[in-house]
């Protein structure tokens, strides 16, 4: 029996075989018509987005081709296609109800025989922003650009939180370069039980990564318009229960993934990783602004590769600029610097060898820096505890507080 994830991969590949008419032979994934793909118990749910002005014939041709290609996949028991306008999609993503005039009943996605009758004003599929059951805090690790050590910080922060007594999960949604399997030295495919995906385990962490679902030489078909669906599935269909923290390794920049995360679950905080170089500082500021716009509290900035300490002489050199510049910028942005991680060869070697420095060199100064960072992150009060938006309506979060008390 094929599991839903492998079927999903085949569905996406099949959609890449559906031509978008009048678009120079491009397929519907490349022309961004595919918004979401979900496969549950063999039922493939596909959401397409097409502007209103699109010719009906073209729409029907596309929908028919989608049904034909997806139905032919071994393991697919049913195909549902829903076609929406960008406006309807935006409304759905904002959790707004469909406008009344068309008086559509709560439209189910079109089933095969009803090709072309897909609802343009579909219902939201799930209540947006419902917390993940059994997870204390969700913390996003983000960066303005790639290569600043975001994934390295995410992994070692997760391990350091564990080291100080928390139960931690790590979710890698860096669509463009999922690196957790390499950093943690794990491979294989997650098991599925009772329709829930079971995270893998590495060094005591529960881990889920896009990397488990892609062969190294598989083209990254999970990008662009379908990012949202994958992230939702990773947050909703993976069994994360019993965690104090879920650390989410985001793709760099400000894009669909950040939006999808913030719209799917309440994010308790974001940690922005930067190096002291000016360019990534500017990008960090942009990331900060984006999280503010999404109403995600930015907990602070981590300065990675802050300095190089010569092991023998303890002399310090600034390789990527002076970390004091980050501190100055952080002050201007009214956000704290949560930690400074030195540039250290053991960090890179540990990453390359699948043995992160916090477990590989538990007594090193770099590990100490990560533990300090984790302690700061853990000390920050839950953002909702100050009653923001309600009369001091503090909502203790199951996983976190029950564990701290035990
Ligand atoms: P990103 O996720 O931002 O793209 P990575 O975490 O993949 O960045 O790190 C990029 C490279 O920098 C990797 O080779 C990693 O091992 C190395 N690196 C990250 N942080 C440090 C550090 N503090 N000291 C030395 N090398 C580091």
Automatic annotation (TrEMBL):
SUPFAM superfamilies: Fe-S cluster assembly (FSCA) domain-like, P-loop containing nucleoside triphosphate hydrolases
Annotated residues for binding of ATP: 144-151
A Gene Ontology BP annotation from the UniProt entry: iron-sulfur cluster assembly
Domain MIP18 family-like: 10-81
Any GO MF annotation of the entry: metal ion binding
Signal sequence, start to end: none
Keywords noted in UniProt: ATP-binding, Hydrolase, Iron, Iron-sulfur, Metal-binding, Nucleotide-binding
Low complexity bias: start-end ranges: 101-128
Entries under Gene3D superfamilies matching the protein: Fe-S cluster assembly (FSCA) (3.30.300.130), P-loop containing nucleotide triphosphate hydrolases (3.40.50.300)
Superkingdom in the source lineage: Bacteria
Region (Disordered): 90-128, 380-406
Family, as annotated: In the N-terminal section; belongs to the MIP18 family. Belongs to the Mrp/NBP35 ATP-binding proteins family.
Function: Binds and transfers iron-sulfur (Fe-S) clusters to target apoproteins. Can hydrolyze ATP.
Subunit structure: Homodimer.
Designated name of the protein: Iron-sulfur cluster carrier protein
The organism of origin for this protein: Lujinxingia vulgaris
